Amino acid sequence: MISLNGLIIKISLMIKNIFQRNNLWFGIGLAIITPVITYFLLQSLIDYLSVIINYGIPLIKAITVQMIAVFLNLFFYIKYIRSAKYEQTGKGVMIVTFVLVIINFIIRWQIM
Fold first, then answer.
1. CB-CB neighbours of 13 under 10 Å
2. Would 2 be classed as within a structural domain?
3. 73 with 96: CB under 8 angstroms?
4. How many domains does the chain fold into?
5. Is residue 75 in some structural domain?
6. Nearest to residue 27, comparing CAs of 74, 94, 78, 84?
7. Domain for residue 70, yes or no?
8. pTM
9. DSSP code of 60?
10. How many helices (H) and strands (E) does the chain have?
11. Can you state the percent helix, strand and coil of the chain, rounding each to 5?
12. What is the pLDDT along the chain (112 residues), one digit of tens a residue?
């Protein structure tokens, strides 16, 4: 039987091994999943706070939350591009981040 401490160590090593890949497609997938999860978490928090603080009036526009979520990809990009071992993953993150920023600006210009 595995103790709780041993299980936590195994899970942390498994997660660490997942992020140590030098693959363009892994970078693309990581750069797509990260903003989606971040957007829904931030939007849920902002909706909750706007109901409590501002009587339901949004505190931040949804397009701003989208841009914040996209720019959080830069942390992954910096992490992977600084290491020569993970250059392909960094390229995948960079490609998707640029595409998402361009899409965000196009949407922003159509709203104005």
1. 10
2. no
3. yes
4. 1
5. yes
6. 94
7. yes
8. 0.74
9. S
10. 5, 0
11. 85, 0, 15
12. 567 777 777 888 887 777 787 888 988 998 999 999 999 999 999 888 888 887 778 788 888 888 888 888 888 888 777 877 888 888 888 999 999 989 888 888 887 6
